[in-house]
Amino acid sequence: MATMLPLSIPKLFIFSLLSSFSVILVTGEDHSYVRTLDRKLIGLKKEKYSHIHFYWHDTVSGRNATAIQVVPPASNFNATFFGATYMIDDQMTAGPELSSKLIGRAQGFYTLSSQEEVSLLMAMNFAFIEGKYNGSTITVLGRNSVFTKVREMPVIGGSGLFRFARGYVQARTYTFNSTTLDATVEYNVYVSHY
Predict the structure, then answer these.
(1) pTM of this prediction?
(2) How far is residue 184's CA from residue 182's CA, in Å, rounded to a whole number?
(3) Per residue in 137-147, pLDDT tens?
(4) How far does the chain reach from its first CA to its final CA, in angstroms?
(5) Which candidate in 56, 69, 136, 168 could, as Cys together with 161 as Cys, close a disulfide (CB 3.0–4.6 Å)?
(6) Closest residue by Cα to residue 139 from 114, 167, 115
């Protein structure tokens, strides 16, 4: 037995050392891929709050349509056109007339997302082309219950001057043509950004 003791102590020592090392690896957390940044180092200044007002023109009809159906509804018998999906490149203007000053384009898609009411899932970027906001975007993703007087959708981000944006938009139907399905919607965007 005396001869076995020296052999088992090194084995026990090595086993204990390896076990301890593996416990350290399992329980120890490596956060070397994450670091806290000073906001000034990435160009973030004091947070600002902005209100942006414009009119969104969704033209489904005619040769110059800005909303094109890319997925048909799930069933022709469904009154809400559930599942229909449209890609958009809608004009955003300063006034309610399509001929008023163009300030940007709403680009993205919307899908008719309810089987019981006319409700849209909207995913779009407000891409600004005017003044100091030229090249900046605000991203919106949310539910738009079309026949509700005022609809709110969240702002989930942005780029350019709207980097790290958050807030919400309010949409109100200004005009709707039930024959052509063309619409003009008044948007008020309330956003905080740096």
Answers:
(1) 0.78
(2) 7
(3) 999 999 999 99
(4) 75
(5) 136
(6) 167
